[in-house]
Specification:
Distance between the termini: 17 Å
Order of helices and strands: HEEEEHEEEE
CATH superfamily: Electron Transport, Fmn-binding Protein, Chain A
CATH architecture: Roll
Strand content: over 45%
CATH topology: Pnp Oxidase, Chain A
Structural class: mainly beta
Number of domains: 1
Largest sheet: 8 strands, antiparallel
Mean pLDDT: 94
Number of strands: 8
CATH class: Mainly Beta
Number of helices: 2
């Protein structure tokens, strides 16, 4: 069973860009736009990218694995939608380096019809 609801997964699949916030070694936030995909095998969000191991976000994870990831948009005339994932991320090196986010909290809103319907839940599972 996924930590994400069916509506959250449907919304994430419809989007192409999110923002990943990491913490640098001086404990300052750093935010980057990234592409992503849901990984059903690990129930995580995977981020790939050009020269990922050389990126600040990848290096930041070596000193602090806590991240926040946001995907949002606004439908006309004014219907904001959002999925925010807070969690622990792995910087995975190798032939196809990636950042894998394991959710510890998922916050979402605006995904059901015309209703706001906010959701905020902690995810209880062991970190990687």
């Amino acid at each position: 069973m996924s930590a994400f609801t069916a509506l959250e997964l449907e919304y994430l699949a419809s989007q192409r860009l999110g923002r990943l916030a990491t913490v640098n070694p001086d404990n300052h936030p750093q935010n980057s736009p990234v592409t992503f995909q849901y990984n059903p095998v690990t129930d995580s969000l995977d981020i790939h990218g050009r020269n990922l191991p050389e990126s600040k976000k990848f290096r930041n994870l070596k000193t602090n694995a806590h991240v926040a990831f946001v995907v949002d948009d606004v439908l006309p005339p004014w219907k904001p939608r959002c999925v925010e994932v807070r969690g622990v991320a792995e910087a995975i090196e190798g032939d196809e380096p990636l950042i894998r986010i394991h959710p510890t909290q998922i916050i979402s809103f605006g995904l059901e019809g015309d209703a706001y319907n906010p959701s905020n839940r902690k995810i209880e599972r062991p970190a990687p």
